[in-house]
Amino acid sequence: MQHLWSPWRSDYINRALAPSGCVFCELASGQLDDAATFVLLRAEFNFVVLNRYPYTSGHVMVVPNEHIATLEAAGEEVAAEMFRLTRLAEKNLRALYKPGGINLGMNIGESAGAGVADHIHMHVLPRWTGDVNFMTSVGGTRVLPEDLQKSYEKLKPAFQ
Questions:
Q1: Are 92 and 159 in contact (CB under 8 A)?
Q2: How is residue 124 annotated by DSSP?
Q3: How far is CA 126 from CA 32, 47, 95, 129, in A?
Q4: The three-state (H, E, C) secondary structure of the chain, written as one string
Q5: pLDDT of amino acid 145
Q6: Residue 56: how many CB atoms within 10 A of its CB?
Q7: pLDDT tens across 78-105, in order?
Q8: Nearest Cα residue to 125 out of 89, 158, 150
Q9: CA distance 142 to 137
Q10: CA 124, CA 109: separation in Å to the nearest integer?
């Protein structure tokens, strides 16, 4: 049997087993270094950040600054800005990654598959025909051609 190691996943597993609060609230606080945490843009009510555990290169999330568990609980200004930033993310991903399509998604609640169940966030990720291959479907492993730092360096100027 051969092994394909992805040691970066241990950070995710350890954090999930011993959470120290809401990761999105920590990011929203502005007390952490944006470059180190891959925050691409801070707006009035939301921020845009690279997904630390992406499905594809360029996978970003639009996250409210406020700890909100459901979309219906979001104020009109928060929701409107969230959608505006989602559109901006789509535009930037199309321009920089030239994908065949874009996935948008929000999993509201643990039963819906949310990794952070009590703080909504919109996923925006580029997709290409054939990007789900045997590694993903059979091996349960994703192969990303670009590391997070490179994605951040590529996307950051577009969100200025």
A1: yes
A2: E
A3: 27, 19, 11, 10
A4: CCCCCCCCHHHHHHHHHCCCCCHHHHHHCCCCCHHHHCEEEECCCEEEEECCCCCCCCCEEEEECCCCCCHHHCCHHHHHHHHHHHHHHHHHHHHHHCCCEEEEECCCCHHHCCCCCCCCCEEEEEECCCCCCHHHHCCCCCCCCCCHHHHHHHHHHHHC
A5: 66
A6: 21
A7: 999 999 999 999 999 999 999 999 999 9
A8: 89
A9: 9
A10: 18
Active-site annotation, residues: 121
Give me 150's structure tokens: 């490179």
Quote the pTM value: 0.81
157: tokens are 């100027």
pLDDT in tens, 130-154: 766 444 444 455 556 688 899 999 9
Q: How many CA atoms lie within 13 A of 30 on its CB side?
A: 10
Q: Among all chains, which residue has been given the structure tokens 């929701």?
A: 79
Count the residues in the chain: 160
How would DSSP label each residue in 130-147?
A: T-S-HHHHTT-----SS-
Residue 116 has which token pair? Answer: 């952070």
Pick the CATH number of 9-159 from 3.20.20.150, 1.10.287.110, 1.20.120.450, 3.30.428.10: 3.30.428.10
Both tokens of 4, joined, read 């394909």
